[in-house]
Design brief:
The structure holds two protein chains of two kinds.
Chain A lengths: L3 E4 L16 E4 L3 H39 L1 H6 L3 E2 L6 E2 L2 H30 L4 H16 L2 H15 L1 H11 L17 H25 L3 H9 L4 H30 L2 H6 L21 H7 L5 H31 L9
Antiparallel strand pairs in A: 1-2, 3-4
Chain B lengths: L2 H4 L2 H8 L23 E10 L2 E11 L4 E5 L6 H8 L9 E9 L2 E2 L7 H7 E4 L11 H11 L7 H11 L3 H4 L12 H14 L4 E5 L7 H14 L4 E5 L3 H7 L2 E6 L7 E7 H6 L4 H7 L5
Parallel strand pairs in B: 3-8, 3-9, 6-7, 7-8
Antiparallel strand pairs in B: 1-2, 1-4, 4-5, 9-10
Helix pairs in contact in B: 5-8, 6-8, 8-9
Classes of the chains: A mainly alpha, B alpha/beta.
Bound molecules: adenosine-5'-diphosphate and magnesium ion.
Magnesium ion (MG) binds next to helix 3 of chain B.
Chain lengths: 339, 291
């Protein structure tokens, strides 16, 4: 078989007695390359088809609830009442809780992840580095149910002094305020902390990866100018890793949005009422996934409503993850980082 | 509005000035190195990577304000020696050393002497240009101030002076806010020189600063080195014999026999090293017969 193929010959009839003949030479891929291409392309398409199928399934299943309440009303309503006729269900209350839990989780997890990643890449001997990476990987391997149980049985009580302190000192900020005599267990704050710990490994590993790719020449330049290690990190490592930090955080956000077991255990799963102020430190709140998990096996209309809520969550997490990978891929450090 | 009226008067004036000699007095920096060049002296310097001794017993005086060239074949420990001189060697895991490095008579490895303090006084230019790509040209020049936590009230003057001393001012003065990574390789290397000079070090170490540059940029860097003579002590590693001959006052020839640590075979005034060296190996090397 010839190695090259000649394309684009001069058109018939075109007389070119003198002058150069333009040839476009393209490489003909070998059999191995072609097979490999087919396999990678095939698995890519399979994943895409699966995603589309999930979307279609959700859409069909949720059509009953969506047509009954109307898409716009379903999206904006905070109530979820199937005991009245006609039922009044909407996803907004769940969505608010979902986003709040995820945001608390990110606020907790991102700084911790950055410092953990820096400890691994910049402040460790080879031995400590391996040890730390192992610990973080171990954290990633803990089933979410255990996180949820741990949060429910242990952290709920232990976190109350912090919640109390926050509401006493920062209570003037609306979301940190609490109503009189409100219980401080089962709050969005606690659920957010647990979710934050669950997404810490993924954010840490993305940031660690980009930090470790910082060009050594730039790091040496910063140190050779008389900088401290921390000064070098601030002027070289963090700017270089910025895209990875943002992308990793969004990836963590995507995970946090869909987190189920922990929030199903921790939150009372009463849809958040927007309009009243939101109190993240006190008992209350629900998230899409937690709400769905707590109501499995309901009547067909409720299930259809839950499917509609799931569809909304599906779209939001998909969008978050896509934006995350674009951010990482676009950044200077992100080239070559696997998400 | 015409284009001319938009340009400030001072700028159109300066753009007609052909040559701007580096001003004699330094822009004052609070907390920076003491003024002037400093003598650097290695006494019995040895270096290890792990258990492996790569440099043994180097005694070398690098006189204040002069240019010292370190020559020798690859792998004989020139870079390692250079990195001993500003405490960059210790950044490599497993690296160890022995001997003394005296900066104006004081050992830079004395207990209680901080590496950051030493590196601020002894700047370094690397083989591969390494400007901070996210920073503008101006920020690159001023990066050392921020990193070493120095104060300067006349930052604009410092930027201009440093860029003039590095021979880059005329090329970049109209785009000080564009990113440092967008310059050509030769310009980037001169930006790195300006960045080092902005801290006003007493010594400037250069590790094959021209090996990645084209001949024109190489000449510019050599001119810069020449202009620094008297103001800063320069120690330069080079594989280019003509360059060593052109720019240096003192020359030290490093050599490592197979599986042996590198040593200084011969040192002395450059003219003598290149014409009538004592050691036949030196003559062979400077005449290009090996290495
Ligand atoms: N980071 C390092 N780790 C281990 N060995 C090194 C390291 N850097 C240099 N060496 C070894 O030290 C010796 C001297 O290297 P170097 O100082 O870079 O030589 P030169 O600059 O003269 O070419 C070489 O044998 C090299 O292999
Ligand atoms: Mg070298």
């Amino acid at each position: 078989m010839p190695d090259t193929a000649v394309a684009d010959p001069p058109a018939p009839g075109e007389s070119r007695s003198t002058g150069p003949t333009r040839r476009v030479v393209t490489e003909v891929p070998s059999v191995v390359d072609r097979r490999f291409n087919a396999i990678t392309l095939g698995s890519g398409i399979a994943v895409l088809v699966l995603l589309v199928l999930v979307g279609i399934f959700l859409l069909i299943q949720s059509s009953e609830a969506l047509s009954e309440s109307g898409i716009l009303r379903f999206l904006t309503r905070t109530e979820w009442r199937t005991d009245v006729q006609p039922p009044r269900i909407g996803v907004m209350g769940l969505l608010a809780g979902t986003v709040l839990v995820a945001l608390v989780g990110i606020v907790v997890a991102v700084p911790l992840s950055i410092f953990t990643a820096l400890a691994i890449t910049e402040y460790s001997t080879a031995r400590r580095r391996r040890w730390l990476i192992g610990v973080v990987d171990l954290l990633a391997a803990v089933p979410s149910l255990l996180f949820g149980l741990w949060g429910f049985l242990y952290l709920s009580d232990k976190i109350i002094p912090i919640s109390t302190w926050l509401t006493q000192n920062l209570g003037f900020i609306p979301i940190f305020s609490t109503q009189e005599n409100a219980s401080l267990t089962g709050s969005i704050f606690i659920a957010g902390i647990v979710v934050g710990l669950m997404v810490l490994p993924i954010i840490t590993s993305v940031t660690r990866e980009v930090f470790s790719q910082t060009p050594p020449g730039e790091k040496e330049a910063a140190l050779a100018l008389g900088g401290t290690r921390w000064g070098m990190i601030r002027s070289v490592v963090l700017p270089y890793g910025r895209g990875g930090i943002i992308g990793g955080s969004m990836l963590g956000l995507g995970r946090a949005l869909g987190e189920t077991i922990a929030v199903a255990l921790l939150l009372p799963q009463v849809p958040q009422r927007i309009g009243d102020s939101i109190h993240i430190l006190q008992n209350g709140g629900a998230t899409v996934s937690g709400f769905i998990a707590n109501r499995a096996g309901a009547d067909s209309f409720t299930v259809s409503g839950l499917m509609a809520a799931g569809l909304v969550l599906f779209i939001i997490t998909l969008a978050t993850n896509m934006v995350a990978s674009v951010v990482v891929a676009r950044s200077r450090s992100g080239v070559g980082v696997e998400l | 509005m015409t284009l001319a009226s938009e340009r400030p008067f001072a700028m159109s004036l300066s753009s007609t000035t052909i040559e701007e000699p580096p001003s004699a007095h330094r822009v004052p920096i609070v907390g920076g190195p003491p003024p002037g060049a400093a003598t650097l002296e290695a006494k019995g310097a040895c270096a290890w990577f792990g258990e492996r001794l790569v440099l043994e017993g180097v005694d070398l005086v690098m006189p204040a304000g002069q240019v010292t060239a370190l020559i020798g074949p690859s792998g004989c420990g020139k870079s390692t020696f250079l990195r001993l001189l500003n405490r960059m060697h210790e950044l490599i895991p497993g690296a160890a050393l022995d001997g003394e490095i005296l900066l104006d008579g004081e050992d830079i490895y004395a207990t209680g002497t901080r590496a950051q303090q030493v590196r601020m006084r002894i700047g370094m230019v690397f083989q591969k240009p390494n400007p901070f790509p996210a920073m503008s040209i101006r920020e690159n020049v001023l990066a050392g101030l921020k990193l070493a936590r120095l104060k300067c009230d006349a930052k604009d003057d410092l930027v201009e002076q440093s860029l003039i001393r590095a021979g880059l001012w005329k090329e970049v003065r109209d785009r000080l806010d564009s990113p440092g990574g967008a310059l050509s390789g030769g310009q980037q290397q001169r930006l790195c020189i300006a960045r080092s000079l902005a801290v006003q070090p007493n010594v400037l170490l250069m590790d094959e600063p021209c090996s990645a540059l084209d001949p024109t940029s190489t000449r510019r860097v050599e001119e810069t080195i020449d202009e620094l003579r008297g103001e800063v002590t320069v120690v330069i590693v080079t594989h280019n014999m003509q360059q060593a001959n052109r720019v240096s006052d003192i020359c030290a020839f490093f050599l490592a026999a197979e599986n042996q640590p590198g040593v200084v075979v011969e040192q002395g005034p450059t003219a003598k090293m290149f014409s009538t060296p004592e050691d036949p190996r030196t003559l062979d090397y400077v005449q290009g017969r090996f290495g």
